[in-house]
Amino acid sequence: MRPRTRCPSSRPVATGSQTLKPPPSFHPAMISVRGLEKRYGDVTAVDGVSFEVDAGEVFGLVGPNGAGKTSTLKMLCGLVEPSAGDVTVNGFDASETEMRRSLGFLPEESPLYDEMTPRGYLRFFADLYDVDREAANERIEAALDRLDLDARDRPVGDFSKGMKRKVAIARSLVNDPDVLVYDEPASGLDPLTTNTVVEFTRELADDGKTIVFSAHDLHHVESVCDRVAIMRDGELAATGTLADIRDEHGDVSYRVFTDVPLADSGPAGDRHVTEVDSMADVEALRAEAGDAGGEVVDIRTEESTLEDVFLDVTGT
Amino acid sequence: MKARNVARIARWETTRSAGDIDRETAVAFVVVLVALAAIVPALVTMGPTPGEGIYRVGVSEDSQYADVVASDAQLAAVDPGAEADVVVTETGITYRDTPKGRAALSTLRSATVSYNDFLMGQEPDQAAAFPVVVSLTYLPQSISVTGQPANGGQQTGGDTGTGGDAGTGGQEPQTGAGTGTGGDVPTTGGGLSGLLGQAQSGTPSSISPPFPLQSLVFAFAFLLPLNVVIQAYGSSVLAERINRRGEPMLVAPISRGDIVAGKTLPYLLGALALISVIAVATGAGALSVLAIAPLAALFLAATFFGAMLARSYKELTFVTVTVSVGLTAYAFVPAVFAEVHPIAAISPLTVVVDSITGDGVTAGQLVLSMVPPGLAAFVLFGLGTGVYREEDMFTQLPIPSKFLDALAAPLTSQWRAGLWTALFLPFVFVGELFAVAVLFVAPVSVSVPLLLGAVAVIEEIAKSVHVFAGFERGQYDRSVRNALVVGAASGVGFFLAEKLLLVTQLVGLPELDVAQAAFSPELLGASPGLLLVAPLALHVVTAAVSAVGAARSRLAYLGTLALAIVLHVAYNLAVVVVSLG
Would the CB atoms of B244 and A101 count as touching at under 8 Å? Predict the structure, then answer.
């Protein structure tokens, strides 16, 4: 049996029918993952993953298919029991039912009941989270307004994939959670809907939500996340801010343009270009050009894109 | 489990399911309900009566018995010269020495008593003869037996009794029915002994009809709603697993038990509501609803568990058909022998039959008919809830693989193997009761050996299949020592739970040779210590044998399971042989 980790002093205090949540800032880390493992028979899906996410932080989880992102997110939500390791969310062990009150989960698919309307569906889930009817109605209407979903009393079976995604996102918000765990929130959506979803995620981050989400599209990660973890074969291959990861795993090159040919230069219109990896080399080229009676007329810096870093880290 | 969460989900399930039904289906459902509501009372009040006119009575029109025959739907009057089961002549009554002939005679006697009671009940002034007290006594008269058709070559004979002194009822026909002693009691038949109030036992060949056919038909009506409800219920459970629709609810702050209970409750209540309607229509009473409730839960539990294993609606259809056929057979086959054989006590439908016919229902009968299906339902819901989780719900593994998952999930420690063996006992009980119900029709020389084999197979599988699952799914380390410990735990669990089978004593089931072989094969004259140690040793040894194989491989498990079964059969045979001297 896995030992439960809990911060006793941070447990919500029950007063009558009300359950008071501790303020998010009470915890140094809203989410803490330590030594997380998940094995399915002989296959290890997640292998010793550890990270922390601070309150209000947006944390991206990226990696190729089968890297263990979804398994990690599901263990974060208490959906899947870890083979080893601990996960705490807002002071609760992930296996505790009460933890789920702090959490909104958006799975990769949008599993809805086709015969239900968005309003009926969302009210049902608000009910499960003990949200009173008035507050639930306000939240539901606000979320659907922000997501620009007007068809609220039609069966969702008639909806497009994007509309269903919006309903699923709204469901993750009915309990006004402090933590949102989104698995591929924009997966398979058209560009317009994708943009809406990404923008909405950014707004949620601005509202102070702690968000962990996985994505394939690295531009979304780059535009939303404060920090990123790159997974490979069930392990964390890199963690940090995008700048940190670029520094550690990315490349920087300099294209130095001169008005005279140099030893390693090539033609570039009426100029000559030489590519080097460091500023020291740039200075050396400047000296070489001066010796040849010319000068450096332009220097262009080229950094690795997130995709380049991703490919480098994941070895794909 | 929280009642509030269960109620929320139940309410949602009800409204959602209602919204999921298209208009045509709703109309068809209403039509069926209306038809059921109309037909059942009509059946009760106006017939047709099952078995109407099945017994032919040769009786002349001017005989006093002609009115008796006309008063009973099961009797059909034919000319005395025609082929008949019973022939009434001026000198006495002749019946064929066949089960049907004896049944016809029994029915004629019952009809005569009823007819006389009816006539006397018509007297407007019941106190007219005061202070004379009228006591109607039936005395034996001439009853002859023939092995040939009653219309020819009858071998009449025996005592020719008098019509008896019937006081004021002297004008009425009298037969030897009632509580008096018989005249010539055929030595070959059990019919008269039954009529004379002697206990009936043995196989159906020695049991005299009539069975309570009409009551059985009505009792069967109690099963119809269950077969309909499980279709909708199974679809609803499987729908949660299709396209991962049930996943968001697993992240809500509610337990799996809340979800399962909430989804099940509307269907259980719906089934009970339909059963209640039928109970009112048939006059079966509240006790019948109470008796059927665990069976309804078992229908739903088996469907739920099956729906948790099925990968498609096609497989679900297979599941629901299996559940329907299996449980309907379990409930209906023993109930056929209601009022004529103690084996009927295992079926809740027997309670229904007895309620309809006005016969009493004993506490032991109620316990035996309700507890096994109730416990079996509880365990199946438990197993199904164990795999109502993300890791099992949405995977497309074959049914046997998911079955092993379900069995292995609760085995988080070695002693739990014993606990779950004990929890499987309701299934053992149900299986063995059903085997008894099926095999008791055969001669004892055949049925007892067959049953001993069936019992060994059922019990050894129950003791080892989850242990095998535990090793297959990595819950237990594959070592001989581990296997021995887990096997011993399983054997002890079975032994302790088996003592619950003493409930069969409540209804006298072990009085049957075949049931004794199944439930209480004990060494006559053995010391109490040996009576405890011997079965405990048997269960521990055979469970350990199977567990050792289970720890090695699937093939080894099959081999050791077969060995355990052989050991078990040998033990049972030895016990029976010793007991029979």
Answer: no
Evaluate if pTM is beyond 0.80. Answer: no
A105 and A235 inside one domain: yes
- We report the CATH number of the domain holding residue A123 as 3.40.50.300
Same domain? For A131 and A262 the reply is: no
pLDDT at B511: 53
Opening angle at CA B51, ends B50 and B54, nearest 5: 165
Name the minimum distance, in Å, from the CA of B240 to any CA of chain A.
Answer: 9
- Encoded amino acid at A96, one letter: E
Question: Residue B253 and residue A98: Cβ atoms within 8 Å?
Answer: yes
Contact state of B253 with A128 under an 8 Å Cβ cutoff: yes
A105–B249 C-beta distance less than 8 A: no
User: Are A133 and A215 within one domain?
Assistant: yes
Q: Are residues A179 and A281 in the same domain?
A: no
> φ and ψ at B521, to 5 degrees?
-75, 100
Structurally, chain A folds into a number of domains equal to 2
Chain A closest CA to B546's CA: distance in Å? 23
With residue B78 as reference, give the H or E element that holds it: strand B75-78
Query: How far is Cα A32 from Cα A52, in angstroms, rounded to an integer?
Result: 5
Identify which of A100, A101, A115 has the shortest CB distance to residue B19: A115
In the numeric block, the tokens 């535009």 are attached to A223
Residue-wise pLDDT tens digits, B208-235: 444 556 666 777 788 888 888 998 899 9
Q: Is residue A11 part of a domain?
A: no
Nearest-5° angle of CA A172, CA A13, CA A84?
A: 60
Which residue range(s) make up the domain with A194?
29-247
Regarding whether A148 and A288 lie in a shared domain, the answer is no
Token couple for A211 = 């968000």
Domain boundary residue, one of A229, A247, A265: A247
Report the amino acid identity of residue B228.
V
With beta carbons under 8 A apart, name residues in chain B contacting A100: 251-253
Indicate if the pLDDT at residue B253 is higher than 50. Answer: yes
**Residue A107 with chain B: CB contacts under 8 Å:** 244, 247-248
Residue with tokens 């990696």: A63
Q: Which residue type does B164 have?
A: G
Q: Is B131 exposed, middle or buried (0-12, 13-18, 19+ CB in 10 A)?
A: exposed
pLDDT tens readout for residues B255-270: 999 999 999 999 999 9
Residue A20 lies in a domain: no
Assess A14–B contact: CB distance below 8 Å, yes or no: no
Q: Which helix (H) or strand (E) holds A62?
A: strand A58-62
